[in-house]
Amino acid sequence: MNKITLLIHCKDQPNIIASVTNFIASNRGNIIYIDQHVDREQDIFFMRLECEFENDDFSIKGFKDLFSKTLAIDYGLQWNIYSANKKPKMALFVSKYDHCLYDILGRYNSGELHLEIPFILSNHKDLKPIADSFKIPFYHVPISKDTKAEAEEKQLELLSSYDIDFVALARYMQIVSNRLIDKYPNKIINIHHSFLPAFVGAKPYHSAYKRGVKIIGATSHYITEELDSGPIIEQDVAHVSHTHSIKDLIAKGRDLEKIVLSTAIKLHANRKVMVYNNKTVIFS
């Protein structure tokens, strides 16, 4: 069984869905999922489709070639086709916080995440025992003001050598340079608390506690050149009250970070996110 996922977007126009589904049927495909969205303000059409091919002579390369020469040209499509048989490869970047790392590796080990994790990279050695316990290669790439360019070169070499598809920053406490962002546009996922920009700095939960906040949250997004302003993938919040201590806020915040980051990773790995004009369309 050959299963593919098709993502397309283009200027909204009549008969796109009918044309695509007829194309699938004419190539002996069976559609098992389809969803679409029209951004009325931008007049842009988005669609995600999953289909299966039982014929033994099916070739994804041949299918892509035919699609690109026909429908893609007819409708001016921006499109991607992915094979379900190929799991995307995700690199994990971490520093010293371990809660997101444990959560991701636990889900990965249980088979919840449809991806591969070829290696874990960190600017510190603290989390190496965790990587070792899950039998995943760990690379220590220290970063300082004087060695940043050299460290980035090493990171790019590792990403290339392992043929990495996307990166998750599991509380990686370093600013990623434009070199990596340009190499992996909308493919580097970050997580941060949602207090920004109101509560910036090293101790946002302490600042939030002093202000007596009633809601705390976390946001996962793709990173861009503008810090913490990339397309948002997932967000969640938790209610708090005067009865919660700083320790309680930190614990609740870390729970949110784990859930929001793992959700973003699953959505990306399952090809359910489309980015347009610094916004995302998230399919169910």
Structure overview:
- By secondary structure, the protein is an alpha/beta fold.
- The chain is 33% helix and 29% strand.
- The strands form three sheets. Strands 7-6-5-8-9-10-11 form a seven-stranded mixed beta sheet. A four-stranded antiparallel beta sheet has the order 2-3-1-4.
- α7 links the parallel β8 and β9 (188-193).
- α4 packs across α9 (246-269).
- It is globular, with a radius of gyration of 21 Å.
- The model has no long low-confidence stretch (mean pLDDT 93).
Features:
284 residues; alpha/beta; 7-stranded mixed beta sheet; globular
Give the overall shape.
globular
- Strand order across the biggest sheet? 7-6-5-8-9-10-11
> How many β-strand stretches?
13
End-to-end gap:
23 Å
- How many helical elements? 9
What structural class should be given to the helix and strand makeup?
A: alpha/beta
Strand content: 25-35%
- Percentage of residues in helical conformation: 25-40%
Largest sheet: 7 strands, mixed
Give, in order, the helices and strands: EHEEHHEEHEHEHEHEHEEHEE
User: What are the segments in which pLDDT stays under 50 over at least 5 consecutive residues?
Assistant: none
Kindly state the mean pLDDT as a whole number?
Answer: 93
- Radius of gyration, taken over Cα atoms and rounded to an integer in Å: 21 Å
